[in-house]
Amino acid sequence: MKTEPGPPSRSADLRYALHRFRQNPLIIAGSVISIGTILIAIFANVIVNPKLGRSTDLDLRLCWNNPALNWHITNVFNCGGTVYPLGTDTYGRSVLSMIILAIPLDLQIALEVVISAVVIGVFFGAIAAYAGGVIDEVILRITDIFLAVPAILLAIVLLVILGRSFSILTFAIVITWWPTYVRLIRSQVLGEKEKPYVEGLRAMGAGRVRILFRHVVPNSIYPVFVQATLDIGSVILTVSALTFLGFSPSPLIPELGNLANAGSTYIFTAPWLIIFSGVTILVISLGFNLLGDGIRDVFDPRLRR
Amino acid sequence: MVAMSQGLDQDVLVVKDLRVVFHTYAGEVKALDGVDLTVRRKEVLGLVGESGSGKSVTALTIEGLLPQNGEVVSGQIILAGNDLLKESSADLRISRVTDMAMVFQDPTTYLNPVLTVGSQITEIIESEAKLFTKQVIADRLIELDRLEGEGRITPVLEKERAKLKSLSSGAKISKREFKRLSRLYAINILRQVRLPEPERIFKDYPFELSGGMKQRAMIAMALVRRPKLFLADEITTALDVTVQAQILKLLTELREQIDTSVILITHDLAIVAEVCDRVAVMYAGNIVEVADVNELFRNPLHPYTKGLLASIPRPDLKEQEMKSIRGSVPNLIFPPSGCRFHPRCDFAFERCPLEKPKLLEVSKGHFVACFLYEGGQA
Amino acid sequence: MVLVLFLLSLLIFYLTRGLLPASSAISQYITPKMNSIAKLQLAQSLGVATKSCPNFTAFSDSQAGCVVPLWGQYVGWLHNVLTGNWGYTLLPGISGTETTLTVFFQRFPLTAELAIAGAGLTILIGIPLGIVSATHNNKLPDHLSRIVSLGGYSIPQFWFGAMLQILLVLYIRVGGLGLFPANGAFATICAICIPNPGTATAYTGAPLFDGILSGNPAYTWDALVALALPAITLAITSIGALTRIVRSSMVDALKQDYILLARSKGLRGRVVIYRHALRNALLPAVTIAGLLAAFLLGGAIVIEIVFTWPGVGSASLAAANSLDINFLELYVLVTALIIVLTNLVVDILYAKLDPRIRY
């Protein structure tokens, strides 16, 4: 099987990657869903009037009049008038509109969390691995503390103490998430720093910080990138779990977990609220997970040929 | 199992017109393009060629262990009268236990790191207990007889010997007893491959052994089956030169002790000269020349063989340019037409790109695949 | 390990006492009948106000000399705790006369039952699914199990629990009763429940184990039926994660050279997969066991809310909302202890499985 004459060229690499890209249904599906989500997030305020989020019409609360789906539940309240494709919520607002308005909020929080966690985690993890010794031990012990507690629990405590705003929510999740990246980048850097090119750079007189952040980290970043993409999905799950437990600033705010929380009380009488908000969360997180998996499959250097 | 009566009784292996293709993203790699090979009883056949010539592929095809994208397009592989390519996978698996054994190049990666060396031997015995029962009992009896000869036999051992004698005549053997005997048998094999302290090595893990010791352990795993055919794929390439010599010496000793044939795959002509009886030269998926080892070195016929021998550096002749064969190994997705060597051959003529030369016997036991010798000339 | 727990308790203490004014620490315990002196005594007995504090107003204004410094509060708390005094808890529905320890350990077995069931399902489904996926790489079983594992990994647990409830309690009904019970850790009213299961001695406090140990099959069945939906919901995400890891490390292992040698020895396919490949493939999978434990214990909180499971997770939510420090600290520390122990066991297991590691 050693019949390739010479090493493959850069452009052949890229072409091969694109070829596998096209061949992999996972990454196609994942990209479609993720890009779709992002587009909806960007144009949400155009598609749906944001004022709808604040207008309530209690006469229409929890009604369903979409003929396409029959819930077979006695006493389903019929909305009359315009058809609400996904019914209305506890404030009489269209569930579909609320979901669309909720997507940019959740996505924004997720991106903020992931980016912050990556930056902090990579910073400390790279230093820990490269410096070694006491610094490494201290940073490791600190991550041990955070990893010994379930993330949700720590976030709950922080939210109760510091208040129920979305910034605190973001902060709470970042606090629980950054240790993972510390561990990830640390093991990568530990392997990377033994490589000959690092020694060569030292011999040329390059400073340690410079070597670390301009050479070693970029070479170690690939698994972090994959994990970050996957984590967007996981963070959305965590955010919605926390708001589901009641930790959002106000029950009125269109946010996916919030909607599900409201729906949980009416699960047997008006199931559409919790069902459709939950499905949205599922689809978004599935999209980013597929994308992350697909990226890993396509660009994994060990899977050549 | 389809028994074939072709070939002499002396031939352990007959490979006829074997064609193997690999399906890859870059295209179809025509790795073996009509390989013909015979291996006689108790002989060591050297299979030489450069990297990529198809030597390992041939061995893997014989064992039936091609990767998923490999396909045998046509041909026959007749081992001890059975065409391996027509066997069911269950029968083929049994053949791997009883008829053939392969030893690979790098003992570090080919031994399972989380299992003890000994268990990687006994698992073979225990996987097909029925096939090994006789052997295992007989081996222990021989051992006990030897101890008696040395005057070291005790009443306990006497009892054991009596019991074993009754077992070997058909009584049933318990699982525990079988495990014990397998263990002793395996330790004996480890001793036969010249490993010091075989009892200790039995319990060791591969990472605790040196390269040479691991390679001997791998050979032991082959030896335990008493195969008719031994496939040695570059078994000394990963070892130091001194260890290389030891392993080769071991190989020749073993060949004397048990009735087995060896295909020794290597790119090192010096090894071939040391150890082999006959040599087959392979180039780009074809056998191009086969001869007795002395004959080949004295009188190479194929231009490729000549080039190979000429390119060996000779420290005794001063101030010589290093000779090499011009050109490079061909791309087997788009191989040269006709004789695959013709683009690099100094003696090529009009016929060479048009037809593929067949392997023909030019003098007794000396086969060449080259039009220079096919009743015509340059 | 002890260091980690110690630092963790410090962290939680700081978060719960250090970031808010001192008066909030006692606000939950103040009843309308208390006068100013009683309130001050309460604050002092909780170790928040100093003995030399003149009156309650001075304390609630956080005047100097009136509030015990945080370190002092912590030491006081630590002393109490180490002598077994975890104080009284004020969870909703409890009159304030139950000690924290009592309430916690009443509810803990139920969470343990849930978590153990979740862990069991994860291992029993995740590992075989991963193996099948790897051995039938890129064929139908692989695609199916990848859908299951990726789907499971992406599912919001509260939604999945809700869906199970909607499907199996609301829609699939037999004789007017839902197939499964909707809530609680023990149910006698559902289509497949046994109405009069008798009793079982409370050996462990968890219905399932009590039923088994008491030899009462009807009781055990009812406990099992109530456990089914919550356990599956809890496990679904970790099944997804475990399957993925097992699959990828099996695929890696199967590509290794020693597999080729094993096959060339004529070993049967099953031996090659389980003895040679799986032994190596399980090593990376074992390392995430600690993470899985953390995930299961954290996820239990949500599950307990969705299924009204009377365990310690749902109680901790109430405790967080009412700033019940003793309960919170106990909960966090017990959880952390379990996770740290799991990691320890995993490390030992790993060293046993991989002979290359010697301590």
Low-confidence stretches of chain B: 1-8
- The Cα radius of gyration of chain B reads 23 Å
Overall geometric form of chain B? elongated
Number of helices, counting only DSSP H or I runs of 4 residues or more of chain C: 15
Q: Structural class from helices and strands of chain B?
A: alpha/beta
Determine Rg of chain C (CA atoms, Å): 25 Å
Give the biggest beta sheet of chain C.
Answer: 2 strands, antiparallel
* Separation, N- and C-terminal Cα atoms of chain C: 17 Å
Percent of residues in β-strands of chain B:
15-25%
State the total count of DSSP E strands of chain B: 12
Q: What is this structure, in a nutshell?
A:
The complex is a heterotrimer of chains A (305), B (378) and C (359). By secondary structure, chain B is α/β, with parallel strands linked by helices.
Describe the protein.
The complex is a heterotrimer of chains A (305), B (378) and C (359). Chain A has 305 residues and is mainly α. Chain A is 69% helix and 0% strand. Chain A contains ten helices and no strands. The longest helix of chain A has 37 residues, at 95-131. The N and C termini of chain A lie close together (11 Å). Chain B is built from 13 helices and twelve strands. Chain B has helices at 55-63, 89-98, 107-110, 117-127, 129-149, 155-168, 175-192, 198-203, 211-223, 241-257, 269-275, 293-298, 303-310, and strands spanning 11-24, 27-40, 44-48, 70-79, 82-83, 100-103, 229-233, 261-266, 278-283, 286-292, 360-363, 366-368. In chain B, strand 4 (70-79) and strand 5 (82-83) form a beta hairpin. In chain B, helix 5 (129-149) packs antiparallel against helix 6. Residues 1-8 of chain B have low confidence and may be disordered. The longest helix of chain C is centred in the middle third of the chain and has 38 residues, at 217-254. The interface between A and B is small, with 8 and 14 residues.
